[in-house]
Specification:
about 15% strand, single chain, 5-stranded mixed β-sheet, binds manganese (II) ion
Length: about 475
């Protein structure tokens, strides 16, 4: 990694910011002179890599500068004021924010752990860019984890899996997410990691030609239908993803998205036409179709997924989306804002609150728990664990993501406090179900309310699973 390489990348998407980023590099380099990484390399290699990861996400100027400077307050004599003077208030706040998320190579003390994690979680609300820098920091540290002791390796890997992977998912940074997963597995279960990796590499090699042929056939057909500008990429599932599937009892050959083709086209309508083309050429398996374009995931991921029988009857997943949707899927949240100018932080905050259920829930939980240990365990329980998807209907049908284990009560409050407060029961897949029914994936649900109901009973507090429902029940009961 060199500064030239970074500047080249910046020049590709943000040419007018090259000078300021060079200035930040020179400043950081001078300050870190004489410091070294455990690998023996000069320290500046680390912030440089962090900045590069951020630039790959097409992060704004302030974020990339802060990436270069992220360790100078902690490790050199530079102060927040120095940074503000040289690079502006925004960069200074970002570096300060990252510094305050205390160093994560943590002691074995449970309490300190919870405090650190608590800070990371609250930091997401402060300015999401702080967390994005922290993610890039963690990614580079995970890439260079071989220089740490085996104990630290396992500790860092586990924490990465529990905290940073879900954050990467929620901000939609899929590339970072899958790399972090694989790196974690490599240190947590080295033998299994190697085994899967070898098999995966072999499959990749054996199928490369056939997949490329499929790609050419599809591309030719798309042209016939007038879709001239398309790009198709071949991809293999990440090692951690395969590991999870095997763990659930699947055989390698049953994993429907082990091999996939990603088709990018110009327009939304082209996506559906491309889907027609794919199904015309290859027979789809019917229960594997997902339209995340009409129903984007809560992290804004949009794409059509279908699985078809490709050459030799092999399962191949095909993902279809526009170039724009693909940008969001690769870079995540950072693509949403034109954030080079001053008001970025507030714009982001508002945008996040209105569009991201994850962000709203996070704000709720933070407001409710002042104790770090409880905060962390609640966030893990509520946001970083498995979800179910249900279809809620009140005339129209909407898909809603709920925490696994949620009850009808949680769903009702999620939809609106009024519905929660007048809830009496529900129809689940056409049958009556009580308020404490546990939501299952793909349930079709209609809520039954009654204006004359007594309102939420106090024992609902023990039944409800989400902080939001509990809060509203308490409010109703005047507590
Ligand atoms: Mn660092």
């Amino acid at each position: 990694m060199t500064i030239e390489k970074l500047l080249e990348l910046i020049n590709d998407y943000n040419p007018e910011e090259v000078d300021i980023i060079k200035k930040a590099y020179d400043y950081a380099e001078r300050l870190h002179t004489g410091q070294f990484r455990q690998s023996g390399e000069p320290y500046i290699i680390h912030p440089l890599n962090v900045a590069y990861i951020l630039a790959e996400l097409h992060a704004d100027r302030d974020t990339v500068c802060a990436g270069l400077l992220h360790d100078v307050i902690e490790d050199t004599e530079a102060t927040k004021e120095d940074i503000a003077e040289l690079f502006g208030k925004n960069v200074a706040n970002l570096v300060d924010g990252v510094t305050k998320l205390a160093k994560m190579n943590f002691s074995s003390k449970e309490e300190e752990n919870a405090a650190n994690t608590g800070k990371i979680i609250t930091g997401i609300i402060e300015d999401i860019r702080i967390i994005i820098i922290k993610l890039a920091d963690r990614l580079h540290n995970m890439r260079t984890l071989e220089y740490k002791s085996p104990f630290k390796q396992k500790e860092n890997a586990l924490e990465t899996l529990e905290i940073f992977v879900p954050i990467a998912y929620y901000i939609g940074a899929y590339r970072i997410k899958s790399e972090l997963e694989d790196l974690s597995l490599r240190y947590l279960k080295p033998e299994i990691y190697q085994q899967i990796k070898e098999k995966r590499d072999k499959i990749e090699k054996n199928n490369k030609d056939s997949l490329n042929e499929m790609k050419n056939i599809i591309q030719a057909k798309l042209k016939e239908y007038g879709i001239d500008h398309s790009e198709i990429k071949v991809r293999t599932k990440n090692i951690y993803g395969i590991y999870k599937k095997l763990n659930e009892g699947n055989r390698l050959s049953d994993i429907h998205d082990l091999l996939s083709l990603k088709i990018c086209v110009e327009k939304r309508s082209d996506c559906y036409q491309a889907l027609g083309v794919v199904h015309e050429l290859y027979k789809p398996i019917n229960n594997r179709f997902k339209d995340y374009i009409s129903e984007p995931k809560t992290n804004k991921y949009s794409s059509i997924h279908t699985t078809v029988f490709g050459y030799d009857g092999r399962l191949v997943q095909v993902q279809i989306r526009t170039f724009e949707m693909d940008k969001v899927a690769s870079f995540g949240l950072t693509t949403h804002w034109d954030i080079n100018k001053g008001e970025a932080r507030n714009t982001m905050k508002q945008d996040l609150k209105s569009k991201y259920q994850f962000y709203r829930s996070l704000a709720e939980i933070i407001a409710m728990y002042s104790d770090n240990g409880k905060l962390v365990s609640q966030v893990k329980k509520e946001l970083f664990s498995d979800n179910v998807y249900i279809n809620y209907s009140n005339g129209d049908t909407t898909q809603i993501q709920m925490l696994k284990g949620s009850k009808i009560i949680d769903l009702a409050y999620q939809i609106s406090p009024d519905i929660g407060n007048t809830l009496v029961g529900a129809y689940v897949n056409g049958e009556y179900a009580p308020v404490d029914y546990t939501l299952q994936n793909k349930d079709r649900i209609k809520i039954i309310t009654d204006e004359l109901s007594y309102g939420p009973r106090e024992d609902w507090l023990d039944i409800a699973k989400t902080s939001y429902a509990k809060k509203k029940i308490r409010e109703f009961n005047g507590k």
